[in-house]
Design a protein that fits this description.
Stationary-phase Survival Protein Sure Homolog, Chain: A; globular; EC 3.1.3.5; SurE-like_Pase/nucleotidase; alpha/beta; two-stranded antiparallel sheet; SurE
Length: about 260
């Protein structure tokens, strides 16, 4: 199997090394893993592409490349510049921190997987939730290392080969617990943390200039039952199938009066 991997935490991020191990285990001795990841951290860039600015790709190993761009840029560079034939699978992550609930909309990790799906390649984003149950472990990615391969292989085995329209991609979030405490895997929809969102916090520099920092909310707030962050905080790996179609299909009938 040929696998392309990327992330949004950067080419030197610990989670990328975790994903490389998982990908190599899946690819097997006859497979190949290509790493094309941002040269610098790109957290929060979502599905951004550098449409108006060219970027450089630097080869740092036989199948390892650093890109001065976003995760979506990395996927495009991997498909059209780095690899001679398309991959069978694209993996993005393992992100340091969860991309459950509203975080999914901001996530560069998911942005890489989304671009892979738009290019017609099965793509999976993986994120490691952080919390009191794992942040002080010697390896806080322990649960991802232990369970990641099996979850990915089940996704591969159960994804339809022929998909009309927008292709599926997957958002996988590993709970904030030690590997031995993972209770299982749940297939669930994206949730919404009540009262949790990003906001700005002002600060003044020594020169007297005012700057704003973007800050997130409490990540230990659960979403509604049987949605992603709720099952994560209960010790389950969440798997959420997604598509790039943003249409609110449930509202098309009730909003017919808008049409003329």
């Amino acid at each position: 199997m040929r696998i392309l991997i990327t992330n949004d935490d950067g080419i030197s991020a610990p989670g990328l090394h975790v994903l490389e191990k998982i990908a190599n285990d899946i690819a097997g001795p006859t497979g190949t893993v290509w790493t094309v990841a941002p040269a610098f951290e790109q957290s929060g860039v979502a599905h951004c592409i550098n449409y108006t600015r060219p970027f450089m790709v630097q080869k740092i190993g036989p199948t390892r490349f650093a890109v001065e761009g976003s995760p979506a840029d990395c996927v495009l560079a991997g498909l059209y510049e780095v690899m001679d034939t398309p991959p069978d699978l694209i993996l993005s992550g393992v992100n340091r921190g969860n991309n459950s609930a509203e975080n999914a909309l901001y996530s560069g990790t998911l942005g890489g997987a989304l671009e892979g799906a738009l290019q017609g390649v099965l793509s999976i984003a993986l994120s490691q939730y952080f919390g009191p149950g794992n942040r002080d472990l010697e390896d806080p990615f322990e649960a991802s290392v232990t369970h990641g391969k099996a979850v990915i292989e089940r996704i591969i085995a159960n994804t339809p080969k022929d998909q009309p329209g927008y292709q599926l991609f997957y958002n996988v979030n590993v709970p904030p617990v030690a590997a031995a405490d993972v209770k299982g895997t749940a297939l669930v929809p994206q949730g919404l943390r009540p009262g949790v969102g990003f906001h700005t916090e002002p600060t003044t520099s020594p020169s007297g200039r005012r700057f704003l920092f973007i800050k997130g909310g409490n990540q230990q707030v659960p979403t509604a039952p049987d949605t992603d962050a709720a099952v994560n905080l209960d010790g389950y790996i969440s798997v959420t199938p997604m598509r790039a179609d943003l249409t609110a299909h449930d509202m098309l009938d009730s909003l017919r009066a808008i049409a003329t």
